[in-house]
Amino acid sequence: MSSSLFRAYVIAVFVWLISIVFALNFGAVDSPALDLIIQLRLPRVILASAVGMGLAVAGAILQALFSNPLCEPYTLGISSGAALGAVLGGAIGFQMSFSGIAGSAFFGSLLFASVLYFISLKSSNNLLTVLLGGVMLGFLGSSLVALWMALADANGIQGALFWLLGDLSRARMTGSIIALIVISFLTLMLWFRWRDLDGLLVGEEGARTLGINVFSVRRTLILLTSLLVGICVSAGGMIGFVGLVVPHFVRKIVGSMHFNVIPLCALWGASTLTFADALTRFMVSPHELPVGVVTALIGAPLFLWIMLQQKERSL
Amino acid sequence: MNNKPLLAAYGVTFAYHNDLVLDGLSLELKKGQLGSVLGPNGSGKSTFLKIISGMYSLKGGHNSGYIYYRGHDFHKYSTSERAKKVVYVPPDVRVEFPLSAYEMVLLGRLCQGGGFFKRTTQHDRDLAHWAMEQCCCWGLRERNWSSLSGGQKQLVVLARALTQESKLILLDEALSKMDLHHQEKIGLLLRKLTKEDYSFLLVSHDINLSSEWSDFTLILKEGKKVACGKTSDVLNIETIQKTYPGSSLTVGKNPVSGMPKVFFGVKH
After folding, report:
1. N or C: lower Cβ tally within 10 Å for chain A?
2. B66 - beta bridge partners?
3. CB distance from A192 to chain B under 8 Å?
4. pLDDT digits over B27-39, tens only?
């Protein structure tokens, strides 16, 4: 391992640890007693790390799979399925419990992921069809959510509404640990495919000339990534920008080889969301902001800056 | 076994949906040969190369024919097995993410597999170094892909093809953006490699480039063979007129190498 690469890993781990310490200590309550930290903040830190890791890794995978720097975890419409599930779950009385909303959201994401997987099986020759199919699924999901909101009683869907903006405040220890285990496992499974992902850097046709079985790789990646996105969105809601910005940031540091991109995305994704979640309590204390709002507030200017930097270099 | 051609394509018929692109095309390429495929736009040259490489399947629809590699049905090999035997070199490669020229060349080793933590072996690195030296692009190794010119990218992609260690390389307009100096260097490299048992099939619009280096030429028009044989025999005024009817093209000779050359035959 070269020294610059080693430094990149050390810095990533260091930033994550700092974010964890920051998240455990800062908050709306002035006296951070041990009980409070263990019962409320620790599950939240674990969930933020897990979801951040999953979103960043999913973003990196989808960008490589579609050779498109603008892809993000929500491009394929899985999140809209989760949103639909959450709103419907909220409407039938799950709004008060984290596991109820998360469960119905996960069910919705699985349903949309199955449809997307079916599309990928049918469109064996065209990746663009899968991408467009995902975007259409996204539109369908959000239209149905909008329709339901227009028709339903506003009080009934309040929990789901907060969830839609990204919300980690309902994290509980068991759910967080399960999310961390499943997301870590899926991340590991995706990391094992680094050779295939590197091949996909030169596009679908290029990958085939390098000996990559693009059809089978694509199906596996879509399946694993859909599950990953489904779990992340169900657990944390629609948290934007982490999955788009973190992979670009990591590639700027270590280049595009996925053997390093995936673990560094996992680390930086975890740090980013843990830090952003701590900020939600810190920014407008004693109130809380939805974490999706904070990541978008920080992420949008950062992404613009990265884009402008790239443009300057290409001039 | 050695009497068998390295590559043989028999009766290749291929259609995109209902548009027939190749119509019963056959070709044999022996070990150490450099063949070229010529023809007007849309004559099916690139499609033919992609079929040979296994990127397009001959199953289904109006498609038929066989591709044999050393006597074995080539399309029955797995994708990675195929990549170890035959490399298709595209005219250009687009990359959306930061990638150095050296990393691009090392991608050629992906088909060889390896352990999870064993990213590159000393052999991989030596091979990449050798290939980049051969293709005059070792000096570009740290440059970002997006900063390279079209011709430089082609040199790097050719180096990548050499690192795949396949003995048959299919060049699809793969020298088209290089300057004349590099076209000469790469042409000489291809000739040198044919003596080391490499074989090449070159698709090009540049008749004068391919006629200089190839042992034999296949001329296509609308997916059918117009002529096939030794380059100096095939490239004559009759076949050129047949391939590009109504044009003023005329055929002469390179005064140094004696190879046939095609010129515009109009005064202005």
Report:
1. C
2. B10
3. yes
4. 999 999 999 999 9
